[in-house]
Task: structure prediction
Amino acid sequence: MRKGRWLVKRLIYIVFVFFIISILMFAIYKALPGDPVKMMMSDNVKPEVYQQQYDTIRKQLGLDQPVPVQYVKWITNMLRGDFGYSTEYRRAVKDVIGVPMRNTVLLNLFSMVVVFLIAVPLGITQAVKKNSIFDKVVQVITIVGYSVPSFVIALLAIYVFAIKIPIFPISGVKTAGFEGTGIAAFLDAAKHMALPVLVMSVGGIGSIARYVRASMIDALRMDYIKTARSKGLREKVVIYVHAFRNALIPIVTVTTWWLIGLFGGSIVIETIFLWDGLGKMMISGLNQRDFSVVLAMQMFYVILSLLGNVIMDIAYTLVDPRVRLEN
Amino acid sequence: MQTENKKVLLSIRDEKQYFPIKKTSFREEQKYVKANDGISLDIYEGETLGLVGESGCGKSTFGRTILQLYPQTHGEILYEKDGQMIDLKKQPPEKMRELRKELQLIFQDPYSSLNPRMTAGQIIGEGLTAHGVYKKGDPALRDYVMDVMKKCGLDDYMFGRYPHQFSGGQRQRIGIARSLALKPRFVVCDEAVSALDVSIQSQVLNLLSDLKEEAHLTYLFITHDLSVVKYISDRIGVMYLGNLVELSTTEDLFERTMHPYTNALLSAIPTTDVDDKKRERILLEGDIPSPVNPPSGCKFHTRCYQCQEKCKHEVPELKDMGNGHLVACHYPLTK
Result:
């Protein structure tokens, strides 16, 4: 029952933090320079009509009211599921945000699967064969992988796989004018996703493999590994059951942040590959002073990271019996 | 115990264990820590052989090398199996895995030697399922583990608990129960009681000797605590810097100490007798030399209080001084 009470307490705490952050965020965006109404209006309006139109739009958006009133209105609408009106797209934020979010999650999910499928076995093998030639070579590759900026890798990948050997499209989410369904649509999407996934995976594999290697080396050094060996267990059992399960604790931290990151688009990669995702949306929203979109996204990230922390704490108790959830 | 007509369980011949040191530059010659530098001895079935020496003299390495937990550098470790002596170093991994059932180890540190993610029952039972004694989830396994736990002074309700929920003494009992559950023939007790406080030490020592009588075990008892080793051992070996310097029965070692190093060690045992004026504390000067570049000749000559010219050049052999009392010294003490 302790777990239930702990969870309730944490959730109440999250609600408080959420409101405090929402006030701060709202204040910050209100204080930003730039006028969304001006951005919405076209320039070739006669000066005498201009002021009249300006006032009408301002009133429509509710920007003529005092800031605290605006906040209360905004937050109640948010809680009802109405995220406001996008001044850039002239549609409700809810309708604008759907497709980019799907694209970003899809891209990140694929690269996450690729990263973990490669990085975890790689890190384990490195740790088991510590200081061998294999380990040293892979260490150099991983450090290059995660220290070279992603746009460099992206440009290289485009140059090699889209220009020199044109097997993948340079950019975009799907072929222009493509009208297929089922497998054809999936193949088309996969083809477009290949390069961005590749670029995102390089950095990811670099860092995750290093995490796995380091924590596996720590685990393999422990006396209980000698205990396991002296029991006469098979080497596979020693490595995967005894060592890896204990090496999971730092890996859980990294994985949880990745899971949260699934929803945060990578601004650089999405811009280079013209990937219609959340990262691109955030940048253009900021450029266009489209604060409803940006604020809605920010609040979404706030909720994600608050929940992510709770998930991480619960995950710790699953991998380590010494961790207990207490108030 | 008589030395005659006893069965040799393990016969160790010129065992060496070197560990490479990380090179600081690429062209540097590869150096080694000579943790064990040529040890030969026999272990008889049913005896308790104590092994003493300073920290870092290679006692633990010796115990672990016998059990093939390190890739052995040199020498033979002959183990009696069905009337034949087999060399453990030459066994293929799968065969060695089977032999591990008979050769067990109790660790020094009860805190780091138990997997924190497994319950006591899992820790004790895992070896049994790995060797196919019981099937996983077999109710008989549970009964057997409970039985072993009871023998080692652990209660039934501790079965499902994790190591961090136990005290140091209880953890050490789990370690003992774990190694004895496999019904081994030979157990290396690597500082098995050093991490425990004195009252628990005696409990665990009594437990170990009771279990020995019951299951006809052979112990290699590694410790730096001379009073413990005197209490539990039939024979005692003294190690210095990777070599065996003296080996004899317990009584003989204390009565007729022959090696100056052993003499210095024994003089360091604290006494409660205030009137004991005869006893003179022999203080050894300096630190234990580096096992990377051990001194020439007798390794002990740099600290020996009766060192002579010969000791600096000639390596003393381990000689039998009668009654199975072996000593490696050019000028053994006589009392």
